[in-house]
Amino acid sequence: MSYSTKGKVISIQDPIQVTEKFMKRTVILSVIEGTYEQKPSFEFTQDKCDLLNSVEEGQELTVHWNLNGREWISPSGETKYFNTLNGWKIDADF
Protein backbone atom coordinates (compact mmCIF):
# COMPACT_ATOMS: atom_id res chain seq x y z
CA MET A 1 0.00 0.00 0.00
CA SER A 2 1.26 3.46 -0.89
CA TYR A 3 0.78 6.77 0.92
CA SER A 4 1.64 10.41 0.30
CA THR A 5 2.45 13.30 2.63
CA LYS A 6 2.77 17.00 1.81
CA GLY A 7 4.89 19.38 3.84
CA LYS A 8 7.75 21.85 3.94
CA VAL A 9 11.30 20.52 3.76
CA ILE A 10 13.20 21.29 6.95
CA SER A 11 16.23 19.08 6.37
CA ILE A 12 17.86 17.05 3.60
CA GLN A 13 20.67 14.78 4.67
CA ASP A 14 23.61 13.90 2.48
CA PRO A 15 23.56 10.40 0.99
CA ILE A 16 25.04 7.73 3.26
CA GLN A 17 26.84 4.73 1.77
CA VAL A 18 25.76 2.10 4.31
CA THR A 19 27.50 -0.82 2.60
CA GLU A 20 29.29 -1.27 -0.70
CA LYS A 21 25.94 -1.98 -2.38
CA PHE A 22 23.47 0.02 -0.25
CA MET A 23 22.96 3.80 -0.07
CA LYS A 24 20.26 5.86 1.67
CA ARG A 25 19.26 9.50 2.03
CA THR A 26 16.75 11.11 4.39
CA VAL A 27 14.47 14.13 4.01
CA ILE A 28 12.50 15.58 6.93
CA LEU A 29 9.27 17.50 6.41
CA SER A 30 7.31 19.87 8.60
CA VAL A 31 3.68 18.74 8.39
CA ILE A 32 0.89 20.68 10.11
CA GLU A 33 -1.98 18.50 11.33
CA GLY A 34 -4.58 20.70 12.97
CA THR A 35 -2.67 22.71 15.56
CA TYR A 36 0.25 20.29 15.82
CA GLU A 37 3.44 20.18 13.80
CA GLN A 38 4.79 16.75 12.92
CA LYS A 39 8.32 16.15 11.58
CA PRO A 40 8.35 12.79 9.82
CA SER A 41 11.51 11.55 8.15
CA PHE A 42 11.40 9.71 4.84
CA GLU A 43 14.19 7.42 3.71
CA PHE A 44 15.11 7.12 0.03
CA THR A 45 17.38 4.26 -1.01
CA GLN A 46 19.61 3.32 -3.92
CA ASP A 47 18.76 5.19 -7.17
CA LYS A 48 15.82 6.95 -5.42
CA CYS A 49 18.39 9.05 -3.49
CA ASP A 50 18.88 11.09 -6.67
CA LEU A 51 15.25 12.29 -6.51
CA LEU A 52 16.34 14.65 -3.71
CA ASN A 53 19.19 16.30 -5.64
CA SER A 54 17.11 19.32 -6.74
CA VAL A 55 15.14 19.66 -3.49
CA GLU A 56 15.89 22.62 -1.20
CA GLU A 57 15.11 23.38 2.43
CA GLY A 58 11.93 25.45 2.77
CA GLN A 59 10.41 23.96 -0.38
CA GLU A 60 6.89 22.48 -0.38
CA LEU A 61 7.05 18.83 -1.32
CA THR A 62 4.78 15.81 -1.62
CA VAL A 63 6.51 12.54 -0.77
CA HIS A 64 5.01 9.27 -1.96
CA TRP A 65 6.04 6.46 0.37
CA ASN A 66 5.53 2.90 1.53
CA LEU A 67 5.53 1.75 5.13
CA ASN A 68 8.16 -0.89 5.85
CA GLY A 69 8.58 -2.68 9.17
CA ARG A 70 10.96 -5.31 10.40
CA GLU A 71 11.74 -7.37 13.45
CA TRP A 72 15.21 -7.55 15.01
CA ILE A 73 16.30 -9.89 17.76
CA SER A 74 19.28 -8.68 19.78
CA PRO A 75 22.10 -11.01 20.85
CA SER A 76 20.51 -11.07 24.32
CA GLY A 77 17.22 -12.29 22.82
CA GLU A 78 15.26 -9.03 23.11
CA THR A 79 12.89 -8.45 20.19
CA LYS A 80 12.57 -4.95 18.74
CA TYR A 81 10.54 -3.59 15.84
CA PHE A 82 11.53 -0.83 13.44
CA ASN A 83 9.47 1.15 10.94
CA THR A 84 10.67 3.03 7.88
CA LEU A 85 8.77 5.46 5.68
CA ASN A 86 10.40 4.49 2.38
CA GLY A 87 10.09 7.28 -0.22
CA TRP A 88 9.85 6.30 -3.87
CA LYS A 89 8.56 9.45 -5.62
CA ILE A 90 8.35 13.19 -5.00
CA ASP A 91 6.23 16.00 -6.42
CA ALA A 92 7.85 19.39 -5.93
CA ASP A 93 5.32 22.18 -5.54
CA PHE A 94 7.16 25.11 -7.10
How would you describe the shape?
Answer: globular
- Helix count equals 0
Biggest sheet overview: 7 strands, antiparallel
Broad structural category: mainly beta
Note the gap between the termini: 27 Å
Rounded to the nearest angstrom, the radius of gyration is 15 Å
Instruction: Report the average pLDDT across residues.
Output: 95
Instruction: List the secondary-structure elements in sequence, H or E.
Output: EEEEEEE
| Percent in strands | over 45%
Number of strands: 7
Low-confidence stretches: none
Question: In which range does the helix fraction lie?
Answer: under 10%
Task: Explain what you see.
Helices cover 0% and strands 68% of the residues. It is mainly β and 94 residues long. The radius of gyration is 15 Å and the shape is globular. The model has no long low-confidence stretch (mean pLDDT 95).
